[in-house]
Amino acid sequence: MTNNSIEKFQDPGLPEHIHRKADHDEKAAKTAERQVAILFLLSAVGTVLAIGSYIFMPQDVVIFIPIMGDQNAAQLFLGLGIAMATFFLGMGAVHWAKTLMPDTEVVAERHEFRSEESDREDFVATVKEQGGSAGLGRRTLIKRSLGLAGGLAALTPIVMLRDLGPQPKKQLETTSWEAGTRLVTDPGDRPIKPSDLEVGAVAQVLPALKDGEERTLENIGKDAVLLIRLNPSEFNLDSERLSWTHDGIIAFSKICSHMGCAVALYEQQTKHLLCPCHQSTFDVTRAAKVIFGPAARPLPQLAITLDSEGYLVAKQPFTEPVGPSFWERNTK
Amino acid sequence: MSQKERIIGGVANYVDERTGAAKWLNKNLKKVFPDHWSFMLGEVALYSFIILLLSGTFLTFWFDPSQRDVIYNGSYMPLQHVQMSAAYASTLHISFDVRGGLLMRQIHHWAALLFMAAIIAHLLRVFFTGAFRKPREANWLIGVGLVTLGIVEGFLGYSLPDDLLSGTGIRIAEAILQAIPVVGSYIAFFAFGGAFPGHVFIPRIYTVHVLLLPGAFLALITIHLMLVWYQKHTQYPGPGRTEKNVVGYPLMPVYMAKAGGFFGIVFGVTAFLGAVASINPIWLYGPYTPGQISAGSQPDFYMGWLDGLVRMSPPIETHAFGHTISWNILIPGLIVPGILFTGMALYPFIESYISGDKREHHLLDRPRNVPNRTALGVMSLTFIMVVLINGGNDLIATHFHMSINQIMWMSRIGVFILPPLSFVITKRICLSLQRADRDLVLHGRETGRLVMLPHGEFVEVHEPISAEKAWTLTSHEQPKAIPHVSEDANGVAKPKSLVNKLRSRMSTANAEQRPAATATEAKELEGGHH
Ligand code: HEM
Ligand code: FES
Predict the structure, then answer these.
(1) Residue B296 pLDDT > 70
(2) Of residues B168, B310, B474, nearest to A8 (C-beta)
């Protein structure tokens, strides 16, 4: 293929410039000028519309636009005005550039970035010489201690971020649930009796607050629990887990064991709990075993029983951390 | 001299006497920029960034970046007397009680989507045309940095209003931090000032969103543009265009007018979208609480692919020695994106290593003439598309009456099969397009006109193509493979021979081409016809 007798196509060079009508025809140029002016005037109308609707349009008028639905008229016309103002200003400028400004292509030379060989040698020599005069090459002690000091100095800003927050300690492992904590409705904070839940029903519950305690989002993020009532015969649990239920009522952490979203969807027919974030699906009858999706662990189950007044209470705290995994989690 | 000319002269004189910049300015005002629609993608990104600066600053005047509890009593009735964070309440205030506030929020959000879309389209243009080659590797790296920061900036932005949807996103981000081995729970606790959600996260990301990252963007964009300026823009191959020149229009006045005008057009389009197309109606979601969730939660598209990866990952965790490692989070959340972005950043260096090409390039490639690179790009895009589609698997399931299970398995399999398949197909298409170019040059353009030959056969009339076109279609280089040399001149086996072998293999694949038509061939054919 590298045969010299093979002749390639030749570069014919830049094609000849074709002039626009407006370049030589004064009338065409005038027309173009008028078009540009009209575009600029449209922009001005847009600004009037924008400021006008800002000042005079009542704030509570709603108008219906097909597809888009109901829209607040004031913000709609303000926006349309601004859109007109900027869009036509831009169109005018572009049209002006295209029709009336010079459109002959210009050729500029380009030079290789690599410098002349002699300059490059001089440069290398300079670097060597200047570096050499500072003794960078020779004085290894200076070089090493400089490296050490520089590296260490960069640590300070990282260390100083330490006070951004406390250490996790046991906070990821514990919740507010204790033996005997009452289950209360969310919202409403009312204690619950088994008779409040029909078979097939679901309820979101939280631990009852102690005196003087306030409900924080941090606590909700760990404490939220789902109560589901099935026919006791529908359970497929080992005897220990079965003893954690009460009369068909079973309780799971609502915080997804995958990445912590609220597991909110319950399918009555299949008895599946579904997390809307990444569709992990848990089988209620088998202690929230993962049957689909990226979650790797079942939802932790909360053991429940009745207190002396017949209200549902926790039998014991959660036996494992709730929510997403972390390094210190001792998963068995 | 007219009065106007005198004034202009006076200003020029004033500036030069104080800066000595006459020569420099004169040269740069005449700077030549090539023109092509695909060169506007980067411009759109720049203009939408400016729109983000302007609309974002407007929002800061009312937005209250605080997680302090407040009771809402603004004019949006359904949330009256509801307890919420000040951040959420102030976003409601901007939306319902500041004139033009909702418009600005929507402009800001649409501009963010446009910014990301434009920056990605620009990156693809640069990739497929080989504009990242020497001497422009630094600008490629800056571009990859901008995309990465853009994803972070956008995520932090839509987290600010502290509504139910964005709080769920933050919860997921926290779970990713928490999943990092050894230090994860510490990093999460430091970032959130304690247990999730805490009271400091919104104020912290606010500083990052409005100060730290915009500052970084400004710095990077400035360097990016200075390099474009200094290295001069690349151009597409064509008659009169060489590695040694730039053909285009001078900065003043044409390019300035066009660029300024184009900014107006982009602003107009975002303002129009902000006016008519509702986006992120946070009042419908309600304030954030970790115990609830809005169904069908979807992140913005530039996060969607990550979400899709997380959704399709298999449920694997390692439990050993009292510790837990969540591969189901680490792989899709950190490892795969890390590999993708590192690979993307290093690509210019990898390509030049494989091809052994260390020269400067200012003429762009037509994608078909570099089949391997084009195929690799399509392959990566296919991967992203599969995971992005899986990110919307719940929507697709309801829309097309499929089960999520089916879609999940389709994407799990598809993510391994479709990218390689698209590589092979793209490469084939490139090669046949090369052949089509060759035929076009040698046999001319099909006219669609049929003529009957004396013996009754019909043939289509072909029209020779212009010399300009023939040059454009044949001027590209024919790459050569680097031969595999396992021994040096003295017959001693080279160390790293395996690496060399791999390199030679890849460079052979790289060099697969249909040879461009030559004038000699054209002449021979011509001779044969007559
Ligand atoms: C590349 C740059 C930027 C991107 C991608 C971006 C993205 C976003 C997004 C998606 C939102 C959510 C909007 C919503 O639907 O409510 C947001 C909110 C916000 N952004 Fe930005 N932004 C950028 C730059 C800026 C800058 C430069 C400022 C200020 C100087 C700013 C100030 C704000 C404020 C105050 C909010 C919260 C107010 C609200 O959501 O209504 N942003 N940003
Ligand atoms: S958080 Fe529930 S599936 Fe991911």
Answers:
(1) no
(2) B474
Contact B146, B122 (CB under 8 A): no
pLDDT, mean of residues A251-276: 93
Instruction: Round to whole Å and give the CA distance between B304 and A6.
Output: 53
Convert B172-193 into a string of H (helix), E (strand) and C (coil).
HHHHHHHHCCCCHHHHHHHHHC
Strands (DSSP E) found in B11-79: 32-33, 69-71
Main-chain dihedrals φ then ψ at residue A271, nearest 5 degrees: 60, 45
User: A4-8, A108-112, B323-327 — which one is most confidently predicted on average?
Assistant: B323-327
- Residue B255 is given by DSSP the state I
Q: What is the pTM of this model?
A: 0.92
What's the CA gap between A173 and A329, in Å, rounded? 8
Structural domain boundaries in chain B = 1-30, 63-97, 132-233+305-316+323-343, 437-527
| Cα dihedral across residues B488, B493, B498, B502: positive or negative | positive
Task: Say how far apart CA B258 and CA B440 lie, in whole Å.
Answer: 35
Ligand nearest to the CA of B55: 1
- Set of chain B residues whose Cβ sits within 8 Å of the Cβ of A161: 190
Mean pLDDT score of chain B, rounded to an integer? Answer: 90
CATH of domain A183-314: 2.102.10.10
**Complex confidence, ipTM:** 0.90
Q: Pick from A252, A253, A256 the residue to mutate for probing ligand 2's pocket: most ligand atoms within 8 Å of its CB.
A: A256
CB of A170 within 8 Å of any CB in chain B? Answer: no
What number does CATH give the domain B132-233+305-316+323-343? 1.20.810.10
Q: Each residue of A195-207: pLDDT tens digit? A: 999 999 999 999 9
